Amino acid sequence: GAVVSQHPSWVICKSGTSVKIECRSLDFQATTMFWYRQFPKQSLMLMATSNEGSKATYEQGVEKDKFLINHASLTLSTLTVTSAHPEDSSFYICSASPGGVGNQPQHFGDGTRLSIL
Amino acid sequence: AQSVSQHNHHVILSEAASLELGCNYSYGGTVNLFWYVQYPGQHLQLLLKYFSGDPLVKGIKGFEAEFIKSKFSFNLRKPSVQWSDTAEYFCAVSGYNKLIFGAGTRLAVHP
Questions:
Q1: Which residues of A touch B48 (CB under 8 A)?
Q2: Contact B103 A109 (CB under 8 A)
Q3: From CA B99, how far away is CA A5, in angstroms rounded?
């Protein structure tokens, strides 16, 4: 149980295009989903907290207009990297929580490797 | 501000050796503490968690961790590692409904 599916797993695209990443909770409803970014050989950095039916809460330093988050249902959140550039290349990971104390524990997707040429 | 510090970035052990990975956190309120593991090519998985109660927490695959409040520590231990324990290990603390991760420790276990 508690499976989180992330799609696509790998995407390569040209600079200037927009890329959408999906995060789905397959067997539970997730009031809250989280989006992380992981640089090579570094830890996960929380980008934003996505709440179903409301605006996402972004961490300091994360551009809201650059990284658009939509959490339209209890099982789906999307992250759109708009007008992507090479510096946006990274590994993006989502997680979802069925709720509970402090929204823990979280269940993680497999991640999406984004490469911008 | 919350922060998590993992002391060892790389650890290399032989099979059957004992393991201890250090984790210290900085947070002023009530904390929930976690250890996650990421096996090569796989997603993050929860090893164990501490919310309250017994400070010695047992997790999956023979791992355990001890919460020492006075030292702000939550070290991960395993008495005898196996080759299959080769992975990256992340300590994390939650507060204000979000997780803060440490930098991770890469463990390589040689047969």
A1: none
A2: no
A3: 20
Per-residue pLDDT of chain A (117 residues; tens, 9 = 90+): 678 999 999 999 999 999 999 999 998 898 889 999 988 777 889 999 988 888 899 999 999 999 999 988 999 999 999 999 999 999 999 999 887 656 667 888 989 999 999
User: Do B47 and B39 contact (CB within 8 A), yes or no?
Assistant: no
Hey, is A103 helix, strand or coil? helix
Alpha-carbon distances of B100 from B17, B24, B53, B61, rounded to whole Å: 29, 12, 22, 24
Chain centroid, CA B60 distance in Å = 12
> Which chain A residues have a beta carbon less than 8 Å from that of B43?
4, 93, 108-111
Which one of A25, A43, A47 makes the best mutation probe of the B interface by having the most chain B beta carbons within 10 Å? A43
| CB A43 within 8 Å of CB B101 | yes
Interchain contact, A105 vs B45, CB within 8 Å: no
Long-range own/partner contacts, residues A66-72 (CB < 8 A, 24 or more apart): A67/A35, A69/A35, A71/A33
CA-nearest of B90, B85, B92, B105 to B39 is B85
Contact partners, residue B31, CB within 8 Å, separation at least 6? B25, B93, B94, B95
Which residue type, as a one-letter code, is found at position B6? Answer: Q
What is the nearest CA distance from A18 to chain B, expressed in angstroms?
25
Beta carbons of A34 and B99 less than 8 Å apart = yes
